[in-house]
């Protein structure tokens, strides 16, 4: 999976959780592992980063846009 987005989140603020995004991807793209994958790439006490990998640029762009429109978090490439 060559295309990715990084999502920064705060583990102390449950309103800032990214877990909902995985459910959204499963409902709107496919099950984890077939067209997308994710993993935490940092492990700090409060602030972490989860990386979402996609098979194609169109899916990465589409779901980056969905996430940015639904949350106030920072999304980076």
Whole-number count of domains: 1
Shape: globular
Order of strands across the biggest sheet? 2-3-1-4
The rounded Rg comes to 12 Å
Q: What order do the SSEs take from the amino end to the carboxyl end, as H and E?
A: EHEEHE
Low-confidence stretches: none
Mean pLDDT: 84
In CATH terms, what is the architecture? Answer: 2-Layer Sandwich
The end-to-end span amounts to: 14 Å
Percent of residues in helices comes to: 25-40%
How many β-strands, per DSSP?
4
Fold-level CATH name: Alpha-Beta Plaits
Structural class: alpha+beta
Percentage of residues in DSSP E strands: 25-35%
Classified by CATH, the class is: Alpha Beta
| Number of separate helices | 2
Biggest sheet record? 4 strands, antiparallel
Q: In words, what does this structure look like?
A:
The chain is built from two helices and four strands. The longest helix is centred in the C-terminal third of the chain and has 14 residues. The radius of gyration is 12 Å and the shape is globular. The protein has a four-stranded antiparallel beta sheet, with helices on one face.
Q: Could you provide a short overview of the structure?
A:
The protein has 77 residues and is an alpha+beta fold.
Element layout with pairings:
Elements: E1 3-10, H1 19-28, E2 36-40, E3 47-54, H2 57-70, E4 75-76
Antiparallel strand pairs: 1-3, 1-4, 2-3
Summary keywords:
77 residues; alpha+beta; Alpha-Beta Plaits; four-stranded antiparallel sheet; 2 helices
């Amino acid at each position: 999976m060559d295309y990715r987005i990084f999502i920064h989140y705060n583990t102390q603020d449950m309103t800032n959780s990214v877990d909902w995004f995985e459910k959204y991807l499963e409902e709107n793209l496919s099950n984890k592992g077939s067209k997308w994958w994710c993993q935490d790439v940092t492990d700090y006490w409060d602030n972490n980063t989860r990386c979402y990998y996609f098979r194609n640029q169109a899916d990465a762009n589409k779901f980056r846009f969905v996430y940015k429109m639904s949350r106030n978090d920072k999304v980076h490439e």
